[in-house]
Amino acid sequence: MALTSLLVSLALLGSIANGASTSRRATCPDGKNSAKNLECCALFPVLEDIQTNMFADSGCADAAHTALRVAFHDALGFSTTDASKGTGADGSIFIFGETELQYDMNIGISDAFNMEAPFAARSNISVADFIQFAATISLTKCAGVAQPPFFFGRVDATSPAADNTVPEPFQSSTDILARMADAGLTAADTVALLASHSVAGADNIDPDAAGLPFDSTPSLFDTQFFVESLLNGTFPGPNEGQTSSPIQGELRLQSDFEIAHDPVTACLWQANVNNQQAMAQAFQQAFLKMGILGQNVSKLVDCSDVIPAPPALTAYQTQAFFPPGLDINDVQQSCESATFPNLPTLPGAAETLAQMTADPLTVGPCQSDGTDCVLPPA
Ligand code: HEM
Ligand SMILES: *[C@@H]1O[C@H](CO)[C@@H](O)[C@H](O)[C@H]1NC(C)=O
Ligand SMILES: *[C@@H]1O[C@H](CO)[C@@H](O)[C@H](O)[C@H]1NC(C)=O
Ligand SMILES: *[C@@H]1O[C@H](CO)[C@@H](O)[C@H](O)[C@H]1NC(C)=O
């Protein structure tokens, strides 16, 4: 598809997602649910299954974080210049799990496979749709997310994605931005998407610890990640793909540090600081774009009305802050055209962040070398 027609389609998706469509809801065959498009009725049994049995009541914690990350790794198996790289948000990461989960770039995605494979297999939707749907529902667990749209009808992959399609944390920002651009995502999209690291942490970078959060509020989709990634790192981060962090127990990815300070992205990055609405809206649009990479948008159906509302942040949670003991003097500013916002410092002594607990569903037969990463029969 030509770029212009993709952009037109995206603009259309955007306007539909923002409520321009006025059609009324019809009752589903189950007699219980309703949706504007009857095709969307197929999503309700899946929604009920994952709400009850996959996310349970765990909130914006490991299950939600795990479901969000795999949607990125599935979608990035795509190139606007080289068809052999993959067909995008196509389920290939699970369908060809034994191949793709061997790739170094997918370290840790076996957790997502173990958690989601049984649900994907027993659902009546494509694996491609399942991965993006579960990620969309995961977002609604995190306070601060802007209502995520969902488009339905993805076609599953018939071959695996290539290796080296997902950026790695030890790559330069220039290389990462180039790979994202080749997949169809701009530098602004990339910064917008990295708001996901506000609800995230690392299990595999530091061999001695797991569940190390990327910001001090890993269960809130707030702007704190953009603040803390700009603070001078004083706690050493000696492992590959890691740099020093400003808070004990926090893990800083080298890639986040580089993108925060790259002249191409520094001002986009800083603009998210204490700018909750702008951050959440930019993420909403970029996540929509990412989740349909490689798919024919004109074949997708708008099922946004199936998605529950995410919780809101309180006014207190919306206000960004400097962690205890730190202030404006600890900011390593790289954006030259805007001053860093004035933020309060949280009172109290410098804290050590708690590690996040792994969700038990992430444990299963699939290994990080791809062994036994095979979808069960439907
Ligand atoms: C652009 C370059 C990116 C790089 C280099 C990168 C790298 C990483 C790395 C290394 C981890 C830790 C993995 C581990 O040790 O277990 C991680 C975690 C995570 N990433 Fe990214 N990421 C990028 C973009 C994204 C995007 C676009 C999304 C989603 C839209 C995303 C969502 C997540 C989430 C949710 C986690 C936490 C997973 C968990 O806690 O279980 N990342 N990322
Ligand atoms: C599965 O989905 C197809 C197409 O959406 C539909 O025709 C069929 O009735 C569904 N089956 C079940 C058991 O929901
Ligand atoms: C996308 O789908 C539309 C509608 O079914 C079709 O006319 C068009 O040829 C498809 N485009 C591609 C690139 O497959
Ligand atoms: C960053 O922290 C280091 C170690 O505490 C210190 O030596 C350095 O002066 C700090 N740099 C800035 C810009 O604050």
Structure overview:
- It is a single chain.
- By secondary structure, the protein is mainly alpha-helical.
- Helix content is 35%, strand content 4%.
- It has a two-stranded antiparallel sheet with strand order 1-2.
- The chain starts with a helix and ends in a 60-residue tail after the last helix.
- The chain binds protoporphyrin IX containing FE and 2-acetamido-2-deoxy-beta-D-glucopyranose (NAG) (3 copies).
- Residues 62, 65-66, 68-69, 72, 108, 167-169, 176, 190, 193-194, 196-197, 200-205, 241, 253, 255 line the site of protoporphyrin IX containing FE.
- One 2-acetamido-2-deoxy-beta-D-glucopyranose is lined by residues 42, 124.
How is this fold's topology laid out?
Layout: H1 3-17, E1 26-27, E2 34-35, H2 43-54, H3 62-75, H4 92-95, H5 97-100, H6 109-122, H7 127-139, E3 151-152, H8 173-182, H9 187-193, E4 201-202, E5 212-213, H10 224-228, E6 242-243, E7 252-253, H11 254-261, H12 266-271, H13 276-290, E8 301-302, H14 315-318
Antiparallel strand pairs: 1-2, 3-8, 4-5, 6-7
Helix pairs in contact: 3-6, 3-7, 9-13
Bound molecules: protoporphyrin IX containing FE and 2-acetamido-2-deoxy-beta-D-glucopyranose (NAG) (3 copies).
